[in-house]
Automatic annotation (TrEMBL):
Listed Low complexity bias regions: 97-108
Function statement: This protein is one of the two subunits of integration host factor, a specific DNA-binding protein that functions in genetic recombination as well as in transcriptional and translational control.
GO terms assigned for molecular function: DNA binding; structural constituent of chromatin
InterPro entries with a match to the protein in the record: Hist_DNA-bd (IPR000119), Histone-like_DNA-bd_CS (IPR020816), IHF-like_DNA-bd_dom_sf (IPR010992), IHF_beta (IPR005685)
Residue span of region Disordered: 82-108
Quaternary structure and partners: Heterodimer of an alpha and a beta chain.
Family of the protein in this entry: Belongs to the bacterial histone-like protein family.
GO term, biological process aspect, one: DNA recombination
Gene Ontology cellular-component annotations: chromosome; cytosol
PROSITE patterns registered for this protein in UniProt: HISTONE_LIKE (PS00045)
Designated name of the protein: Integration host factor subunit beta
Keywords assigned: DNA recombination, DNA-binding, Transcription, Transcription regulation, Translation regulation
Species this chain originates from: Teichococcus deserti
Length: 108
């Protein structure tokens, strides 16, 4: 699914919102996630997953065309870890209600 397809589906599912408003909402969400990752923050969306930036160390790589050794500098790469509900849904497992702590028995 592309960003424009996502916007079209959201606009169709929410007829009370105009398409330009849905575009603004989706764009704002993506921009905020991107800005948080650029600051080094973690973004967690409960039931969906967590976005974070992982550091990669500097290393010596190879130019595939010439085979020559090339120094690759350290960098941060975006990383997504899916949440339990998303994994279950993708794998076709049943979605279950979140588990709650058992209630205490009433005093006699």
């Amino acid at each position: 699914m592309t960003k424009s397809e996502l916007i079209a589906q959201l606009a169709a599912a929410n007829p009370h919102l105009r398409q330009p408003d849905v575009e603004l909402i989706v764009g704002t969400i993506f921009n905020e996630i991107t800005a948080a990752l650029a600051r080094g923050d973690r973004v967690e969306l409960r039931g969906f997953g967590a976005f974070s930036a992982k550091a990669r160390e500097a290393r010596t790589g190879r130019n595939p065309r010439t085979g020559e050794a090339v120094e690759v500098s350290s960098k941060a790469v975006p990383y997504f870890k899916p949440g339990k509900e998303l994994r279950e849904r993708v794998n076709g497992g049943p979605l279950q209600a979140p588990k709650r702590a058992p209630r205490a028995a009433p005093a006699p």
